[in-house]
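Researcher: Go.
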Amino acid sequence: MGTEIERKFLVRSPAWRGKSRREIEIVQGYLSTDADRTIRVRICDDRAVLTIKGRPQGLVRREFEYEIPVEDARQLLADFCEGQLIEKRRYEVPVDTHLWEVDVFSGANQGLVVAEVELSRPDEKVKYPSWIGDEVTGEVRYYNARLVEEPYRDWDEHPTP
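Model: Structure:
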């Protein structure tokens, strides 16, 4: 069974810039945004995946990911996805023994910048880089599946990291 264990944070400064080892252009949409199961289609540069995620249980959630043809992903995004598409550029930033993923959103979520770190177990210790702000793990409005329905540009207040 696939699992994902991650923590998510706001990014409070651009000090991470120039430290990334890779950049990825991402476009994604949701075939289902049900709280118990989200089904996402994502194109990352020249690769596409279909991902099924369960409801989070603390930091842990079930996750299954399958590579699909890019053309199929384009059709799914165009014909079947709910709400706005998520557009973002992901930067992979190594810090100590972990790889942080900094997502800089564009489109309807322009201005939102978050960082995630995947863990091997929920109690794993993580070194927090200086550019990390408030933790938003578990805050539903920061879930990508929620951002398609309530994009960042429509929020009444924009958080200060």
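Model: The mean pLDDT is 95.
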